[in-house]
Amino acid sequence: MSNRFTRFTQSTITALFLCIFMLAAPAAAKNTVASVLGSKDLNGATVGFVAWDMDTGETLYEQNIDQLMTPASNMKIVTAATAMLGLGTEFQFVTAFHAGDWNPGAGTARNLFVIGNGDPTFSGEFFDSNAAAADALAGLLKNKGLKRIDGDMILDARAFSGADYPEGWSKEDPWYCYGMKVGALSIAENCLIVTVQGASKAGNAPTVKTDPPLHSSFVVNNVKTVSKGNSSIKVSQNSKGVVTITGQVRAGKSASHEYPAPYPDMLFGSALAAALQRAGIGFQGSLSRASEFQGSAGQWTQIASVGSPQMMHILGVMLKHSDNFIAEMMTRTMGAQTGPGGTTIGGAQAISQILYESGIASSGTIRIFDGSGLSRNNRLTPRVLMQLFRTFYNSYMGPGLMAALAEPGQPGTLKKRLTGTAAVGNIKAKTGALRGVCSLSGYFTRKNGHTGAFVMFMNGYSVHSNNIRAIQDKLALVMLEM
Fold first, then answer.
1. Distance (Å, rounded) from C-alpha 180 to C-alpha 452?
2. How many Å separate Cα 10 from the centre of its chain?
3. Are 233 and 194 in contact (CB under 8 A)?
4. How far apart, in whole angstroms, are the C-alpha atoms of residue 60 and residue 58?
5. Which terminus of the chain is more solvent-facing, meaning fewer CB atoms within 10 Å of its CB: N or C?
6. Distance, CA of 165 to CA of 167 (rounded, Å)
7. CA 371 to CA 351: how far, in whole Å?
8. Residue 321: which of 465, 183, 178 has the closest Cα?
9. Minimal CA–CA distance to 112: which of 282, 358, 362?
């Protein structure tokens, strides 16, 4: 047998074995997927699991791809994508400041008129602290020459309207800061943290600290220092912005409370008033709303404005940390900017319309009620999310969306998941969880170097969500071998 024939035979056999291996690998992966999905922890659950190759369009695995399911916080992927499409990747929120009877020589204004457009970035998520966010605004006004406000601060948050919570939220959600209200003027993600330190002796007044720091004229401390009993405080905010703290704290002890303030614009105003005081800008007036004021900012001089970070930076924080506040602010902004109105319902309509117009979704494949995924009424088919991933992968916006997702071992919701595995550096994804709902979706790098996308929706299970996350992690590692 000639060497030439031997080389030909060996190369043919090698190619044949390689072909068989390539054909068998996906089948083996599917069998492994099936065994993972056969876990008893998924008994009674509805499971959607889909994986596609983004480079070739190949279907790697599909189960319940057209089943309407609850996405939980995977809804934020949809919110981010539609914000990129509807508002643009370089979109910035602008907050403007107008001064009544502005005297630039003396640095005085009769009133300060603040116009908000839904900037979600005045918080410790984007500044060193919540106080630093307020200080940045006060510093801007000081640099523009403002030294004293002789009258009131007038807050214009009319870019958003309606204060009702989205349909489908659990009744306990508004009690906690993850279910805060949103407003066109908001600070600290509208979550007020109050800490009361008991005096050294019972009967003496305790010390109150708030985060963000509020102007003292808008804080009432009715807490008592006691010698025995439990430390417990309650916090309330009225429509004029006054925060009242009641309860008791044991001597030498402290108590804290997180409070989602019902009046975001007033929290913003009180925090800004405190920052103005720290900056040496005089203000002893009250807070009022533009809707109650005779006149408009248009007749006054605009002395300053501030733009937020660009859209992609904001969305990176929202997706990596599953930030409900940013998602709901973004939803209302889409409603305000694209026509339906600055309400959650208007935003949900805007999101739906963008999905329809882009070809990502069609009638009957989505039901949108909010932007964060807290609503249990939200419904998506896994195919919609896969179409979204594919549309963006083939777009100039794809790298931006991919970079905004969380990664194993990195800051974000995947920091403690899939660490020390092949998923590190090979998966970018968004988590999601509600009671009985667990989701994980994003992009991954296949063993052959191709980019894939996947969607995992698990609805209606009865075990602890940690059990479901463990199943998802197993699926993720199998998926990498596809």
1. 35
2. 57
3. yes
4. 6
5. N
6. 6
7. 8
8. 178
9. 282
Confidence (pTM) = 0.92
Residue 219 has which token pair?
């804080």
- Give pLDDT, residue 25: 45
Which residue, 159, 163, 249, is CA-closest to 206? Answer: 249
Please answer whether residues 197 and 219 qualify as being in contact, where contact means their C-beta atoms are separated by less than 8 angstroms. no
- State the Cα–Cα distance between residues 154 and 151, nearest whole angstrom: 9
- Residue 30: its H or E element: helix 3-37
69: DSSP letter:
B
List the beta bridge partners of residue 454.
51, 442
The region, left, alpha or beta by phi > 0 then psi within -120 to 50, assigned to residue 442 is left
What mean pLDDT is reported for the chain?
Answer: 92
**117 to each of 140, 155, 389, how far by Cα in Å?**
18, 11, 29
pLDDT(19) > 50: no
- Listed as own residue / partner, the contacts of 179-182 with beta carbons closer than 8 Å and 24 or more positions apart are 179/260, 179/324, 179/374, 180/260, 180/261, 180/324, 180/325, 181/260, 181/261, 181/262, 181/264, 182/118, 182/264, 182/325, 182/328, 182/329, 182/332
- pLDDT band at residue 14 under the 50/70/90 scheme: very low
